[in-house]
Amino acid sequence: MKIQNLKNSPRVPFNLEGYILHSEKPVELVHLLLKPGDALEKHKNPFDVIFFVIEGSGILAINGDNLNIHSNDVIKVTSDKLRAWENNSTQDLKLLVIKLI
Predict the structure, then answer these.
(1) What is the rounded distance in angstroms from the CA atom of residue 34 to the CA atom of residue 17?
(2) Domain for residue 49, yes or no?
(3) Is residue 75 part of a domain?
(4) Domain membership of residue 91 as a residue range
(5) Considering its fold, how many domains does the chain have in total?
(6) Structural domain contains residue 2
(7) CB 9 within 8 A of CB 2
(8) pTM of whole model > 0.85?
(9) Which CATH number covers residue 62?
(10) Of 41, 57, 47, 54, residue with least CA distance to 80
(11) Residues 6+ apart with CB under 8 A from 63
């Protein structure tokens, strides 16, 4: 057994601070940090995703609808939906991304 954390996990392959905490089908866990002003551009994934907001708040755009998401909120986004994140606050936005692969 290996304990994973932000110090010993691989980084995500895009330009945000994120770490892959666990990756084993059918689930992958990613810790994602968006600093104030950071954004994750519009995209789709070939799998469903559940977002859990660990800390902070931001805007989650899903197919053009902007949702204000806050600490301890959970939302599932299905694979057919276009999504984007924006940290429009003055504090860090920390997300646990649960990919259902």
Answers:
(1) 7
(2) yes
(3) yes
(4) 17-100
(5) 1
(6) no
(7) no
(8) yes
(9) 2.60.120.10
(10) 47
(11) 81, 82, 83
